[in-house]
Write a structure and sequence with these properties.
With 205 residues, the chain is α+β, with helices and mostly antiparallel strands. It has eight helices and four strands, in the order H-H-H-H-H-H-E-E-E-E-H-H. 43% of the residues lie in helices and 19% in strands. Helix 1 packs across helix 3 and helix 2 crosses helix 6. It starts with a helix and ends with a helix.
Length: 205
């Protein structure tokens, strides 16, 4: 347990250093991802990134001995569900910085390409996820509950960096299991992302 805690602290320090180097706090603010109450958005975002490197989920973190030191689950839910946050803008701004860093480490003659990938994102246990649908799985040849995840990425032949992504629903209304929540403000980024989940299909179907 002591070793695990020390490793957690070490990972946290490394992520803190990376956040400062890439100016993550500024990128979040520029994307309208700002604190409304309680803990800062940078702090919440850093904890979520830490979970990825630890291979843990949020509930395991909050149930651990260190859980009392962290924000409670409602703070994370408010952070992740806020419709006004410009996550697409944040991702693109971060990617530009990362690619510029890579450019200084690789030869100018190396070929760079854009890659479009369409993969299945299964959500077979979910019942109330907006725009979840029955989508075709090209591997199994069956209809599966979930989304098609369309990803645009940059690669130099060695590294792959996602530039943008979208969770696509079904173009067929009969295959959609849950529609868009009618209470959502149509002016928000969250609503526009939901519309993208349907409008992209006009191009790819």
């Amino acid at each position: 347990m002591i070793h695990q805690y020390e490793q957690l602290e070490k990972n946290n320090l490394e992520i803190t250093k990376a956040f400062k180097t890439q100016k993550i706090g500024k990128l979040l603010r520029d994307s309208n991802i700002r604190k409304c109450e309680g803990f800062s958005t940078t702090h919440l975002f850093q904890l979520l990134i830490l979970l990825v490197f630890e291979g843990k989920n949020l509930f395991r973190l909050l149930d651990s001995k260190q859980g009392k030191e962290h924000p409670q689950k409602d703070a994370f839910y408010r952070f992740l569900n806020r419709l006004t946050y410009g996550w697409r803008r944040f991702l693109f701004a971060l990617v530009v910085q990362v690619i510029q860093s890579f450019e200084g480490l690789t030869s100018k003659s190396r070929i760079k390409v854009l890659i479009i990938d369409d993969s299945l994102f299964s959500r077979f246990r979910s019942k109330q996820v907006e725009l979840s649908a029955r989508v075709y799985d090209h591997v199994s040849g069956k209809m599966v509950k979930g989304f098609s995840m369309l990803t645009l990425g940059w690669s130099d032949g060695y590294s792959f960096i996602p530039l943008d992504f979208n969770m696509l629903s079904s173009a067929n209304k009969n295959n959609r299991l849950v529609e868009i929540d009618t209470r959502i403000d149509m002016r928000t980024h969250g609503y526009k992302r939901r519309q993208d989940a349907l409008s992209f299909l006009k191009v790819f179907t």
